[in-house]
Amino acid sequence: MAILEQPYLDLISDILNKGHLKGDRTGTGTHSLFGYQMRFDLSKGFPLLTTKKVAFGLIKSELLWFLRGDTNIRFLLQHKNHIWDEWAFKRWVESSEYTGPDMSDFGQRALHDPAFKESYLSEKKVFCQRVLNEDGFAQKYGELGDVYGAQWRHWKTRDGQTIDQIQNVIDGIKQTPNSRRLIVTAWNPEDVPQSALPPCHNLFQFYVVDGKLSCQLYQRSADVFLGVPFNIASYALLVHLIAHETNLEVGEFVHTLGDAHIYNNHIEQVQEQLTRQPKNAPSIWLNPAKKSIFDFGMEDIKLQGYDPAPAIKAPVAV
Fold first, then answer.
1. pLDDT tens digit sequence for 234-273
2. pTM of the predicted model, to two decimals?
3. Which residues carry out catalysis?
4. CB-hemisphere CA count at 13 Å for 26?
5. Residues near 214 by Cβ (< 8 Å), separated by ≥ 6?
6. Any known ligand binding at 234?
7. Residue limits of the Thymidylate synthase/dCMP hydroxymethylase domain (predicted)?
8. Please, what are the domains in the chain?
């Protein structure tokens, strides 16, 4: 195995040294660069950061959620994954049915008001329990709209049909591996206004050469400290899964970023991360008995040889 995360550490350094100070939708403010590319050779290991612990179980369950075509957070909550809670919770507290304490601007207020944070966490805990235990409530308020699962597996056409982009791209890799149309897109301008969060990682393309499968992702908006480590590992895992089904070796994951930003309240965290020495990358085990990527469960994907530095916590900008 080899050290694979240096491109990510270089990205952090470049944003700190050259980034532009910008406002943003969340009101937090960012240091930002536009147009950046990282390359990871997946044949040399799995690019999960070692300079801070990244929760691989959350990455697995989120990717499996996408691949199921699911857009309801209930599946995630069943696997103790809370990374999409805030967007569903926002829909609940902004609805006419919500009668609890005022939760307006909860993301920012929780950062600065300890009493409010306690109330917010209590309300969110109740919300998650209701999504888990009440079918009607989950159907109405656990739903995020046409986010990744819907766009990947059930793209809606004007005539009322759906397109399974993931299955189509797998078929294309098997049947026409030299095609330049091995593309999946999540960005649909018609659906953006109704989405809880319009797709950040919005288009990816596969490339086959010398028996190896590579993938390039275009990500329009990149939360470099919290989101990008997940995105790198998630798409690396997707390449492994599709290579497994199509009987190919893994090649490169190429990560192209539009607005790559570090939130102003993540600066201390990334500075701490840069003081740490990266270690050899871990590896991935996939259950050889599973032939289709749609058959994989949590137990069929395992991380081997992962020895990271401790996690570094930071608030999510909603």
1. 999 999 999 999 999 999 999 999 999 999 999 999 999 9
2. 0.94
3. 200
4. 22
5. 206, 207, 208, 239, 250, 251, 252, 253, 254
6. no
7. 7-318
8. 6-70+146-304 (3.30.572.10), 85-143 (no CATH)
